[in-house]
Each structure stands twice: as C-alpha cells, then as structure tokens.
Amino acid sequence: MTLPAGRDGLPLVVGVLNVTPDSFSDGGRWSDPEAALAHGRALVADGADVVDVGGESTRPGAERPPLAEELRRVLPVVEALAADGVVVSVDTMRAEVAAAAVEAGAALVNDVSGGLADADMLPAVAASGAAYVAMHWRAHSDRMQDFASYDAPGGVVAEVSAALGERLEAAVAAGVPAERVVLDPGLGFAKTAEHNWALLAGLDDVAALGRPLLVGASRKAFLGRLLAGADGTPRPVGEREAAHTALVALLALRGVWGLRVHDVRATRDALAVVGRLAAEQTGAAG
Ligand SMILES: Nc1nc2ncc(COP(=O)(O)OP(=O)(O)O)nc2c(=O)[nH]1
C-alpha cells in the first residue's frame, strides 16, 4: 500500500476520533458507535483525509481497557467508515486490535508505542500490508512522565531521532517496508512543554531519518501558553484562532506529512490560507 498524501502538496489532515470514555479532550463524546460514526463522517465532511479511530486513551493515568473492550469500541466504527470509502487509521498499541482493524478496512496502524508495547505488533503490521505510524514513546500513560528527561548530547531532538531510527529499523527487520512507515515525535508523551517546543523547532533533524512525519499537537497542554494568559484565562478567540493557524503554518512550512487534529475544519481553513500564501509567493517569484 502506498501512503496517502495531502492535498495540493500540503500536509494530510488526520481527524481524531476517540471512541473512549476517558480521552483527555473529548472522552465519552463518541462512545456510542452511531455517534462515533456520525462524528467520523463529520470529520470527513470538514476535510479530514484520514480518520484516526482510537479505543484506548493515552492520557496520563488512563486505565488500559481489556482487549475485548478495545475491539468492541473500534471495530464497528472502522468497518463502517471504511465501507464509506474513508481512509481509516486505527490508533492502537495492540497487535490483535491492529490486525482486526486492518481486516475490517483500516489502511494505517497508528501505534503510539512504536512497537514497544506489544512484541507482536510489527510482525502483525508486516503481515497486514497496512501503513504504520511509529510514534516516540517511553512508557504507558501511568508512568510516562517519569521518563521525561533527555540528557544525552543534543538533548530531546537527538534522543527522539535516535529512538525513532531504531523503531524504523525494527519495523523493517520485522518485514514492514520502510516506504510504509511514518514517524511521529510523540508530543506530550514523556515530554515537558520545553521538550515539545524543542522538537517542533528540531523537526528537520527528525525528518533527516528519511520518512514522512506525523505531528499531533492538537489540544495538548503545552500549547497553553499560546492559548491562555498567565492566569489560565483563555485568550480572545481571535488570538486562539491565529495561534492555531500559525502552528498549522509552521508545521506545513516544515513539510510534515500529516497533522493529527481534533478540529479538522479549523485546520483545513488554516491550510487553505497557507496554500494561497505559498501560491502567491510562487507566482510573485515568477
Ligand atoms: N501518532 C500519534 N497518535 C496519537 N494518539 C493519541 C494522542 C493523544 O491525543 P488524544 O487521542 O486526543 O487523547 P487520548 O490519548 O486521551 O485519547 N496523541 C497522538 C500523537 O501525538 N501522535
């Protein structure tokens, strides 16, 4: 399978569909399969190129659902969206969920653990023929912030890049062709706000691994300083929208492959502006 591409040379928009009761920003809203399917279709109508269906929250302190429960949450939604012709990814750390979701029509496996949480994941992805997103991860939610230290030379960017390089090698060794692998720096996973900003500034170093990058900054706490005042009160709507557009523009200009977002419409609108800006500049340059 070849990786899906964004529109007009811009990043792909991956819409988040959490079918969980406890996701940090929208937990419980889409627990009912019908509501989840309706939301997935709304994400596509708003401009999502891919819908990322996740049945396990990764927020700090989240309890892992049993395998059967994760399967129950994601499979009906994956199957129905895939039947609509939607490009679906399944956000899971479990090989059995990944294999079943691809069987049900998912085209990508989005594994926040990069294959570290389940030794069977990489062989399962290889056998499935799906594309694979390997994210930088150090531990399950209940302990991950204990691992938010990067003391090697070059700091967090160097360590995350090296770790993702190892995950890429592991995927290829397990039979996943490199061209089916997307890498993700894992913003907010075993990282402080400073680490996240350093990674955004250092994306070119991660991209030097030679694989497309997916970035998930959407609604994450480290954006707080952009979206709220020192006392925590939200900045004016205009400023918050500008911040969202600026972050989308920054990532688009960095050439990332995909943006994993909850607010698809706002992201699509921001990308439209970035696209027009780029076209004007190209036109002016003759
Ligand atoms: N590839 C990738 N996958 C991800 N999955 C979940 C979350 C966490 O966000 P969300 O899904 O909204 O929350 P929760 O894990 O609580 O469902 N972030 C990423 C990310 O940054 N990259």
How large is the radius of gyration?
Answer: 18 Å
Distance between the termini: 37 Å
Poorly predicted tracts of residues:
none
Bound small molecules, by name, code or SMILES, are: 6-hydroxymethylpterin-diphosphate
Discrete helix count: 10
Let me know the average pLDDT: 93
Which word captures the global form? globular
Order of helices and strands: EHEHEHEHEHEHHEHHEH
Residue share in β-strands? 5-15%
Q: What strand order characterises the main sheet?
A: 6-5-4-3-2-1-8-7
Description:
Helix 5 links the parallel strand 5 and strand 6. The protein is built from ten helices and eight strands. The model has no long low-confidence stretch (mean pLDDT 93). It has an eight-stranded parallel beta sheet with strand order 6-5-4-3-2-1-8-7. The chain is 43% helix and 13% strand. The protein has 286 residues and is α/β, with parallel strands linked by helices. 6-hydroxymethylpterin-diphosphate binds next to strand 1 and strand 5.
What can be said about this structure in brief?
With 286 residues, the chain is α/β, with parallel strands linked by helices.
